[in-house]
Amino acid sequence: MASSPRSTFLLHISLTLLLHSQTLPKTAFSQNLFFRFPPFSNKNLVLIGSSSLRDDSLCLTNGSLSSSSFGAAIFLNPVAIIPLVSFSTSFSFLVRNPNQDLTSSSRNAIAFFLLPNSSIPALFQSPDAVKNASFLFLEFPVSRYLKAAASVNHITARISIHYKEGGMAVRVSAGEPRITIKEESHIFISKNFVEHIYAGFFSSNQNSSESHVIQSWSLSSSIFHRNNPQSTWRIKLQSTKALKYSLSNTLLILIRASILAISAAVIIVACFNVKEQFSPDARKRRRERQLLLKDFRKFKYSEIVTGTRNFNEIIGFGGTSKVYKMNFPLSSSTFYAVKRFNTDKKSRKSYHNELEIMSRVRHENILELKGWCDMDTGENLLVFDYMPQGSLHYVLHSRKNQLLPWTQRYAIAIKLATALKHLHEECSPHIVHGDIKGSNILLDDEYEPKLGDFGISLNGAPYKAAGASKQYSAPECKPKSVLDVKADVYSYGVLVLEICRGRMPKDTAEGFVSEVSEMESEDRLLEAADERLGGGFNPEEMMKLLKVGLACTVVDRERRPSMAWVLKVLNGEVELEEMQKREAEMVESVERREEAAVVSGLSGNTDSKGKAKVVQ
């Protein structure tokens, strides 16, 4: 036998409330209980079945003819009570029956219920659980209302329920149209209520086009202490958050003490920070920063929000930031790229690092900083020239139907080497970029490369590795390991191999490099060239760039060439073999000096017979 809508509803509501039952306290509160709707909100109502919120009303059933349905709404926060003496509630509902189908309406109803928390588990124990459980269920048969207003296809009514010990009065006020109804509502009361109750509505709709809507609802209640009739006790509608975190006096004392201790610590730290902020070193750093930034525009945050149309168009992103396209001023056709950093500690460090480096680096193949903006709220933004062609990675691998020709690839390799030579040899102190890869090489309208993203760049010795992409990282790039410019040389070598092959490194740089190295050892190096070029490249240049890539990616960092030597080879000033010979001679010279120093150290620690002394 199919279960009734009410039985199905009770199972649904029990499951829902059971989820909250473990967090409910067992004490009463001497406060008024009062709430009023509209507006109805998902924040304080649990919707079950076909119920939904629409136009400041609570729709219990949707009027669908497809099948039988029910809807229910429960006020999420429970009422903490001692034995209930009285309560009053008022609500108005609307019933629409466009087909005036009174036969189906005879099986439909709207009900108001109160369900104690202690009754929830009982509803699962036996078929008679509904009869034995403590709950209140006031049912209003819809057919009676519609029969009294048979000339229309909808009615509204206001229900007022007043309950006191020993009896209950239910009053139905005149609605639209005006009707008079002899009250014969089904009242279903079991035992006295204890602990906590939930209030709500239930509606059933069996194969009819009716829709049932609650338009307004208010509820208030009061309790009288039996041992002292002169005292009036009120109950309080608690928020679930307050219930969940109800604390004993002892715990409150501990929390207050902890707050005082934390506050004291914060004050002490703040005092040190203030002292540090106004120290001579701090003032010197601020003056230096002001001098560095004097040539750059400090954008207002409102200007950036307007120019990006509230950060509407993302053109790039990374681990610490997102990049947006900005039109500034709006009346012009000038575009910029705005790098908006995240607000965590790592991102803030990346912002300050990049701002410091970019503000003092000037080179035609390094992305130019145009301005900056930082806010007390933690918003940190850098503004750069907009690069319409996107990144080298995009042009090589993602752009469809437009292959990057060899002449532009070779020119990009040369100009990128020029930018790295500037960082490694012409800046003081020298700068290690630390994350050379295709997505950090941007291209302007003429495909001129611009090296960007200096967020993890290393400015001054000692250089520490900091999260570079493993597909381009040198073998010595371990977390917190000490690096030098040769780490950039290795990444450059991987990138030029990628430019030649038209393929990305998959997992690590070593595997990618070894494939090309194997081709060279088998005297078939040109087979590494991008097949999509269809032979449309200069074989001598291709061979030269592939060999440069292999020379830059040798495991022994001391044997990697400098970017100055790379430029000479690519520009045809020296032959690759000569460069490799010079580099080998330099390495051997360094090794001989180191060996001589070791021998000299040992000779100073020998006895008269030439044996080494033990140095304590």
UniProtKB/TrEMBL annotation:
TM spans (from-to): 70-95, 251-270
Compartments, as annotated in UniProt: Membrane
Name of this protein: Protein kinase domain-containing protein
The keyword Coiled coil appears for this protein: no
GO molecular function: ATP binding; carbohydrate binding; protein kinase activity
Region (Disordered): 588-616
GO cellular component: membrane
UniProt xrefs under InterPro entries: ConA-like_dom_sf (IPR013320), Kinase-like_dom_sf (IPR011009), L-type_Lectin-RKs (IPR050528), Legume_lectin_dom (IPR001220), Prot_kinase_dom (IPR000719), Protein_kinase_ATP_BS (IPR017441), Ser/Thr_kinase_AS (IPR008271)
Pfam family for this entry, one: Pkinase
Annotated organism of origin: Dendrobium nobile
Family: In the C-terminal section; belongs to the protein kinase superfamily. Ser/Thr protein kinase family. In the N-terminal section; belongs to the leguminous lectin family.
Membrane topology according to the record: Single-pass type I membrane protein
Binding site for ATP: 339
Main location group: membrane
Signal peptide: 1-30
Keywords recorded for this protein, A-Z: ATP-binding, Kinase, Lectin, Membrane, Nucleotide-binding, Signal, Transferase, Transmembrane, Transmembrane helix
PANTHER family reported for this sequence: PTHR27007
Keyword Transferase among record annotations: yes
SUPFAM superfamilies: Concanavalin A-like lectins/glucanases, Protein kinase-like (PK-like)
SMART domains assigned: S_TKc
Domain Protein kinase: start-end pairs: 309-576
